[in-house]
Amino acid sequence: MAQLLSFIKKEFFHIFRDPRTMLILFGIPVAQLLIFGTVIKNEIKDVRIAIYDQSKDETTQQITNKLLSSGYFVLVDDLQNTSGIEETFRKGEVKEIIVFESNFGEKLIKEGTANVQLIADASDPNMARLAVSYTRGIINDYVQKMNPNQELPMQIQPEVRMYFNEEMKSAYMFVPGTMALILMLISAMMTSISITREKELGTMEILLVSPLKPAQIIIGKVLPYLLLSIVNAFVIVLIGLFVFGVPITGSFILLMLETILFILMALCLGILISTMAKSQMTAMFISMIVLMLPTILLSGFIFPIENMPEILQWLSHIMPARWFISIIRGIMLKGVGMAFIWKETLILIGMTLFFVAVSVRKFKIRLE
Amino acid sequence: MKEEIIRVKNLVKKFGSFTANDNLTFDVYKGEVFGFLGANGAGKTTAIRILSGLSSPTSGKLNVAGFDVYTETEKIKKNIGYMSQKFSLYEDLTVAENIRFYAGIYGISPKRRKEKMGELLKKLEMEKAKNKLIAGLPLGWKQKLAFSVAVFHEPKIVFLDEPTGGVDPVTRRKFWDMIYEAANDGITVFVTTHYMDEAEYCDRVSIMDAGKIEALDTPAKLKEKYNAKDMDEVFLRIARASPNPSEGGGQETITNE
């Protein structure tokens, strides 16, 4: 134990004395929060929707057909009452629900106006905004075609509701994403760099010759970063809460436990990288190319996964951050419990175990 | 009767088809300064890495400090010290922090550590540099400190892999004084070098060439046997007689893994 303590103490010295490490640990999180705070526009396709049609007349049927033939939407559920709406969103099965009022067609002809409600899952604000505006565009287009010369005062009033994020704050999108990115960066990149640094300097040999066991070396390396990453996660959640107003609807403890799981996964990945990389440069390069870019591009952080080409959607399944983002969006914004995120959690646990197994094997080979 | 502290019998180490150590057999006696000589690529580093537990042998019987290399690695580790040509200290830690760290991983109690550290810094005349970062120290100091740290836990054997690489002759001479001092304290010193003048300082030397031990004796006897005026000449005679002379350089990168 005392051995381990002195090892851990040494690690903290390394961290606090290297300006680069300190910058990555505490400078980058702030910078990224600011950079990714800007919203990125993009296209949608095959967004899963549900429809609750209370009138089931010719007009609503035509509008539905027009929506579904546009290529932007896929109908996955035909609701029969309003009670299932919230539950459907929580499960994350659909992104938008369209509710037609009763006697929709009749009202439109006789009174010149009819109401349709567009409800979107705004825990992914980018997606929600796009889905709603595409739907609105298609409905407007329908009205125009029905009434080309504007002879009749005809109007369909879409009433928009954003679930989980009424005000459509983009912070709701970038806080979970940035959290995943930062934790991945710090945990994986910093561990892999700090281990390869020891290899480069030759101090790794000294450690291997000493009575320290490989497990102690790994724990000694990983623990400081685990603690600092947890601190970082706290800071991000607090900045999200107090600066950007992102709520924590669900259990804070569950959120932290899931975060620790993700950090552990990333740390194991870092160890794995260090067993493959011979120099700090290589470790940094692998971390950047193999971890950072895919995490930004393929995790659903900025670009909705639903809109990606199929092969990229498939690739996104092996991005740990994808599952983590889905988990924290669920807990923070939708307030869901374990019942809704057990699948993602299991996947993260599986990935962690896989990385541990592979790196232990690799580490042994290095020791011979 | 001399007591053997390292016993090596038929050590073979292969990297793929390349044989780095070809059937080495030798003993090292307790308290002696044992020189392991050879050109770059002769297989010195490979052998020292195997003896210190950094690498495992392909075959052979090896016993270090009374323990078996295959099964009692942990016990060996507690009884040996190791210093490589890189003088492996943490540059971003101070002198005192480095000492504390190494004392820590060898499980030395804080009380004992304090005592020993005081003595050590006094001996090295580095009391004023105690709280200075290693990065700012001259090379000679780093070397002395690296050696002191390697023997801080009072091992039975200390392995030195080209400890004087890149250091000027005066500093090298001073470094050898430290080696003698350790040997006088009963620590067996196993040192590799490619400086032939250093071979004269050893109690016994083995000369390796192309993975094999070509000669093993005291410097005086070797000079007599090869009818040479110094060790340099001994080495040249052996290298020329070898059917498969190592070219020097090149191979060492492979044996370093």
Write a brief structural summary.
Chain A is of the alpha/beta class and 368 residues long. Helix content of chain A is 66%, strand content 10%.
Can you walk me through this structure?
The complex is a heterodimer of chains A (368) and B (257). Chain A contains 14 helices and five strands. Chain A is α/β, with parallel strands linked by helices and 368 residues long. Chain A folds into two domains: 2-39 and 170-367, no CATH class; 47-163, abc type-2 transporter like fold, CATH 3.40.1710.10. In chain A, α6 (125-146) links the parallel β4 and β5. Chain A is elongated and about 90 Å long. The relative contact order of chain A is 0.12. The mean pLDDT of chain A is 84. By secondary structure, chain B is an alpha/beta fold. Chain B has helices spanning 44-51, 73-79, 95-105, 110-123, 139-150, 169-184, 196-199, 219-225, 231-241, 251-255, and strands spanning 4-15, 18-29, 33-38, 59-64, 67-68, 80-83, 157-161, 188-193, 204-209, 212-217. A six-stranded mixed beta sheet of chain B has the order 6-7-8-3-9-10, sandwiched between helices. Chain B has a four-stranded antiparallel beta sheet with strand order 2-1-4-5, covered by helices on one side. The termini of chain B are far apart. The model of chain B is unreliable at 245-257 (pLDDT under 50). Chain A binds chain B through residues 2-3, 5-7, 9-10, 13-14, 17-18, 201-203, 205-213, 367-368, and chain B through 52-56, 74, 77-78, 80-82, 84-86, 88-93, 97, 100-107, 159. Chain A: It is a multi-pass membrane protein.
